[in-house]
Task: structure prediction
Amino acid sequence: AGAVHYTAKEARESENYIFKLSETVSFTIIDSYYYYNVSTTENDHSVCTLLTQTCADGKERNFLFTGDLEKKGESWIAANDDLPEVELFKAGHHGSKTSSNSDLLAVIKPKIVCVCCCAGTSEYTPKQQNQFPTQEFVDRISVWTARVYVTTVVVDDKAKTFESMNGTITVISFKNKITINGSDNNTVLKDTDWFKKNRTCPENWAS
Result:
């Protein structure tokens, strides 16, 4: 018979969108404008989710994942979803200039941001400032945190060779502590050689 499956839209409409993963962890499918409306880009049809951990002291820790959702969709969820402040935000659309917009960031106030991208690749654009993670993303996220981590960095763009920036990023929330472990290193973005050569350091990160 196979597994039963349904869309994020169906989950929201049936009010079956919160899933208990354990006694202390739940998984919520966040409502999104583009579950119900067609976009010209498939990025906006990303399923958006929130992981919530209830700690021993009763406080909650939240972790937000918005896929490749872009500015209009982000602004919609910021205005309509009653989002909490988050410990972790997986940067929208690989740190593009069209995601991780100010409306959303002002609501979620992220403490840690992980960017899944290859820093500096020209795969999507030859414009250096718009290559992931973009300067606009850096400027916006710097208002909230300097704890920004990136998986991969280009070594030779023409040869299409890459290496780990932080590598596989593991975020562990246990008891009263959250730890970040990169499989290669734990250097934050602003302190990397790539950032110093390719991005302008925002005032918030200059001190």
